[in-house]
Specification:
heterodimer; A: 831 residues; alpha+beta; six-stranded mixed barrel; six-stranded mixed β-barrel; 54% helix; elongated; disordered N terminus; B: 229 residues; alpha/beta; six-stranded mixed beta sheet; 10 strands; globular
């Protein structure tokens, strides 16, 4: 007896070659390739983008990383840092008085070497509000650069001699912009920048000096990573660009989440497309498996052949996808590289392996079960059509496991992932329910319309089960497409609009109480109407919940640092729109005169505050006990003045000395107003943050561009699901069309019927998908991105219209050949 | 002459589809012995159990009770894979609906049995078999590019390319017009008579066609699941 000895490899490879003729294998490959491309492109690109953004945020810090300590950095730390190979530059910062003639001012001295700044640039000018230029290196020996405030305080001019400690230095420039200047109000002592060579002669850095020592570092990602992993002794801290710039940190986190969602949505959609195609393929395979078994092939042989076929297909799709992914991320990288003016680091290979892993996961989780089912087909099927299927639950169980695995590997934010997945499941259920109800409603309609529509609507109603299933698949795909558009247009622009063009770009501080009214009048006379004036009193925390406290009471170093200085406290009856009460109620006018306090979440976290707790603050000898009346969250990236602690009006006015501050927007061409302002109010300090905002806006625009590009993959994945859903009933429709033609129906009648059917199906799916897209977008905005989001009714019309158009077009494209084929061919031959 | 197919008291029952405890008796104790080289026709009305009997004799299904021997091996006790192994290289099939793989060319379809049996040079064997059925010029054509008669000729070429000892044919002319059907019959018997190295194959036919049945050496009639010879 002959043994089955032939290896199934030849058969599998031949099958693969022929496989392109079969629609579902083509779409399966496409879906796999899209999934791999999306995952590869996003992973490769986010990796590079993160590094590039770190570089750029590094420019705002002046370094990729800094080590800092209140004492000179221990030698072993410096040695260890040098051992990483990174470029290092020491910086020392300390407060000191600077004199010019009789005038004195307390300044924040910054002592730098010739390498300063390691990243980014210092922009200087010759006089206040004069044209700025980029400085090469820091001030030379014997020179000093000062900022506008010190310039004003000491009434300087270019070339003025100032005294710092025992040395005299020449003021050579006015600092317009320097890296590492935060936007908080605490570190805004006026800047005095000098060369390290001059420091010993000043004699300023004695043992009692309150200095902060920095070691700035730049280097390759590996060197920076090595610095991040250095073991640091107590008292030495690491500062990364993200720590220095919370508003950029928020932007980065948002962009990572947007990209993550785009990638996750693409992978999930591709999974749906793979599942649909594989299920169709599995059904088609049953006849082939029965015949092979009839001709003597064992189940193991068939399984080996088909699995080999699948793996080969996965390899091809994975390869194509990886190439697409690499190409796509390179396109974006180049696009952004020019914009960002930074050299993007080379992509690493790891993301490609991850992408191949995704392909494998999709194949095993979604494509293998239908094949296993097909392999169980009995050879008797060659005579009798036996529709029994072994292991009916296998695909569902396997798909569930694969989806969980996919989420596990692809998402960093479980919250966002759960929303996407939960939304998809909920929407699938809603789609099914709605489709079923609509089909019921449509059924009586078919009697009232012409032949074509009767045929089309009849199909929709007759195949209720498959119509519902198809509406769900199409709905999910359309949902993805709509979500892409919603996220792109609505969420991204909402995000961008957080910094609308009229965001305050000028801050005035040190306003004396008697200057508030004339300054308000001055600004109004110049057409500045958006300036809100805030009082600010400085107080020190002396007791918490009735118990005396000092910095030493707390273990947490951050809390210690925070307690160890005066709090800036303000009062208001009105809550800023960028504040949100989380517990308790805002007092409004009713709170006037009440010793209440509103605490931001940072203060809550530091001091463990809850409603009803008391805080006693000392305002230059006057102690006031406040009761926590409500808790707030503050959007610190809104560029508006905000305070950790707020009190109602009528409590502090008489008891604490106050200064005022305000902010407003000033168009760049009206900056001359500032000069006038300073002449009239010389003690008022102007903080111009226009360049900082431009930097943040530019970065947001770049990130949005990248996110939009990556969403194209989600779009492609959605289209493959659409194709798969349409391809699923293609065979049946082809036979029906052939039969109708054989029965004498004109092609035009059949064509109109098909169009009617697809249009109704698309309309159904599109409407429900639009509703779902709105709900999901709203959830994403509210829960994940913390952005305000309103409903867009027009999206429903768009959804229905796009759904009908897209499904009809793809359906027509899939079947157009059938209408030209002679009916006997359609009925006789396999298609 | 040795016996290549042997069936003893073969019964096939299936449980009723309406869920009642009654069973449907398709075959009621069939006894049959087929000698090597014999040509046998099994005839009977629709629903008499002809195709079921053929699939049991060929090992495509197992009987509810009774013994089936194929090429000297008892197959009713074997599992599906063992039965497949017993068929490989021993049994050929011609079906009413041709059963060609749509994605494969005529040549690739014909290569399959020889490949599965691990025979040498399946491509050459297939080419020769297709030439013998007059399709030497259509090797690279796909099933949908062939007429019904041509598709059945590919199926016959496939059946003989594996050099089977037993050829089972289920209504081989059922889907063809009279003239084409007659040509197919001629071809089937001619090829069978030409035989191969091991001598003429045993031919077991299931048919409605009286003329076709009369071409066979023996005709058995299946009535309500039992044979009358």
């Amino acid at each position: 007896m002959a043994e089955v000895a032939a290896a199934p490899t030849g058969y599998a490879l031949r099958r693969l070659r022929k496989g392109w003729r079969s629609g579902e294998l083509m779409i399966l490959t496409l879906a796999l390739a899209v999934a791999v491309a999306a995952v590869a492109a996003v992973s490769l690109f986010t990796g590079r983008l993160n590094e590039a953004i770190a570089l750029q945020t590094g420019e705002t810090l002046g370094a990729d990383l800094m080590l800092t300590s209140r004492d000179p950095l221990p030698k072993e730390v410096t040695k260890a840092a040098q051992a990483t190979g990174a470029t290092l530059a020491p910086v020392v910062q300390f407060p000191s008085v600077v004199l010019r003639g009789e005038a004195t001012a307390l300044a924040s001295m910054k002592v730098v070497t010739a390498d300063y700044p390691l990243r980014g640039v210092v922009r200087i000018a010759d006089q206040p509000f004069g044209p700025a230029r980029i400085a090469v290196g820091g001030p030379g020996p014997g020179e000093a650069w000062v900022d506008l405030r010190l310039w004003q305080d000491l009434s300087l001019e270019g070339g003025a001699i100032v005294q710092a400690g025992a040395s005299q230095l020449v003021v050579r420039a006015l600092i317009v912009d320097e890296p590492g200047r935060g936007v908080g109000f605490s570190d805004l002592a006026p800047r005095f920048l000098m060369n390290a060579a001059d420091l010993p002669a000043t004699g300023l850095l004695g043992p009692a000096a309150r200095a902060q020592y920095f070691l700035q570092a730049t280097g390759t990602p590996a060197q920076v990573q090595a610095l991040k992993e250095l073991q640091l002794p107590l008292g030495v801290r690491r500062v990364s660009p993200e720590d220095a710039r919370p508003e950029l940190k928020a932007a980065l986190r948002n962009s990572a989440e947007f990209l993550g969602i785009a990638r996750l949505a693409a992978a999930l959609l591709a999974a749906a497309a793979v599942a649909l195609c594989a299920a169709q393929w599995g059904v088609k395979l049953r006849d082939e498996v029965a015949l092979l078994k009839c001709l003597g092939a064992s189940r193991a042989w068939v399984l080996r052949a088909l699995v080999l076929n699948l793996l080969a297909l996965g390899a091809v799709a994975g390869g194509v996808g990886a190439l697409l992914g690499v190409g796509a991320q390179e396109v974006v990288a180049r696009m952004l590289g020019t914009l960002m003016q930074v050299q993007l680091p080379a992509p690493s290979l790891l993301p490609l392996l991850q992408a191949w892993f995704v392909a494998l996961l999709l194949l095993i989780g979604f494509a293998l079960p239908p094949i296993l089912q097909a392999c169980a087909t009995s050879p008797i099927r060659v005579f009798q059509r036996d529709e029994r299927v072994a292991g009916r639950r296998l695909p569902a169980v396997s798909a569930a496991i694969a989806v969980i695995a996919l989420l596990w590997t692809q998402t960093q934010t479980w919250q966002a992932a759960a929303l996407v997945l939960g939304g998809a499941v909920l929407v699938a259920g809603l789609l099914a329910l709605n489709a079923w109800l609509l089909v019921l409603l449509l059924t009586p309609l078919k009697r009232a319309v012409g032949t074509s529509w009767r045929f089309g609507l009849g199909n929709v109603a007759r195949r209720r089960g498959s119509t519902v299933a198809q509406a769900v698949a199409l709905g999910l795909a359309l949902l993805a497409l709509l979500l892409v558009s919603v996220v792109r247009q609505d969420l991204l622009s909402t995000w961008r609009n957080r910094l609308p063009p009229n965001t305050p770009n000028q801050f005035l501080i040190n306003i004396q109480p008697d200057q508030v009214e004339p300054l308000q009048a001055f600004l109004l006379s110049k057409g500045v109407t958006d300036a809100r004036f805030w009082p600010m009193a400085r107080g020190r925390l002396v007791a918490l919940r009735g118990q005396p406290v000092t910095a030493e009471t707390f273990d947490d170093p951050e809390t210690r640092r925070w307690i160890d200085r005066d709090f800036n406290l303000s009062w208001s009856a009105e809550l800023n729109p960028d504040n949100e009460i989380t517990q308790g109620e805002w007092w409004g006018e009713a709170g006037r005169g009440m010793p209440w306090m509103s605490a931001d979440e940072y203060a809550v976290e530091r001091l463990g505050l809850k409603l009803g707790d008391t805080l006693t603050l000392d305002f230059a000898g006057t102690q006031i006990e406040f009761t926590i009346h409500n808790l707030r969250t503050v959007k610190w990236d809104s560029f508006r003045p905000n305070f950790f602690l707020l009190a109602p009006p009528g409590v502090l006015e008489e008891k604490a000395a106050a200064q005022w501050l305000t902010s407003f927007h000033l168009a760049p061409d009206r900056r001359s107003l500032l000069r006038e302002l300073i002449q009239g109010y010389p003690n008022v300090t102007v903080l111009d943050i226009e360049s900082l905002m431009t930097q943040v806006r530019t970065m947001m625009d770049r990130i949005i561009g990248a996110v939009e590009f990556i969403f194209l993959f989600t779009l492609a994945a959605g289209l493959t699901v659409l194709l798969a859903a349409i391809e699923g009933t293609r065979g049946e429709r082809v036979r029906e069309a052939g039969l109708l033609r054989a029965l004498g129906a004109r092609s035009s009648v059949i064509a109109k019927g098909l169009i009617a059917e697809y249009a109704v199906l698309g309309l159904l799916a599109g409407t429900i998908a639009a509703i779902a897209a709105q709900v999901i977008a709203w959830l994403l905005a509210e829960q994940v991105f913390k952005l305000p989001y309103g409903l867009r009714p027009s999206l429903w019309l768009v959804g229905a219209g796009v759904g009908a158009l897209l499904v009809t077009t793809l359906g027509w494209w899939s079947l157009r050949g059938t209408l030209r084929t002679p009916p006997d061919r359609v009925l006789r031959g396999p298609t | 002459m040795s016996t290549v197919v042997f069936a003893k008291d073969v019964r096939k029952e299936i449980s009723s589809l309406d869920g009642s405890s009654e069973t449907l008796k398709i075959l009621r104790g069939v006894n049959l012995s087929i000698a090597a080289g014999e040509t046998l026709a099994i005839v009977g009305a629709s629903g008499s159990g002809k195709t079921t009997l053929l699939s049991l004799l060929a090992g495509l299904d197992s009987p509810t009770s009774g013994e089936v021997h194929l090429a000297g091996r008892r197959i009713d006790t074997l599992d599906e894979d063992e039965r497949a192994q017993a068929r490989a290289g021993t049994v050929g099939f011609v079906f009413q609906s041709f059963q060609l793989l749509s994605g494969f060319t005529a040549l690739e379809n014909v290569m399959l049995p020889a490949e599965l049996a691990g025979r040498s040079d399946p491509r050459e064997r297939a080419r020769v078999a297709l030439e013998r059925v007059g399709l030497g010029a259509r090797l690279q054509h796909y099933p949908h590019q062939l007429s019904g008669g041509e598709q059945q000729r590919v199926a016959i070429a496939r059946a003989f390319a594996g050099e089977p000892r037993i050829l089972f044919a289920d209504e081989p002319t059922g889907n063809l017009d009279t003239a084409t059907g007659a040509r197919i019959i001629e071809l089937l018997f001619e090829l069978n008579a030409q035989g191969h190295a091991r001598g003429a194959a045993t031919l077991v036919l299931v048919t409605h066609d009286e003329a076709l049945a009369q071409r066979c050496g023996r005709v058995l009639t299946l009535r309500e699941g039992a044979l009358n010879g």
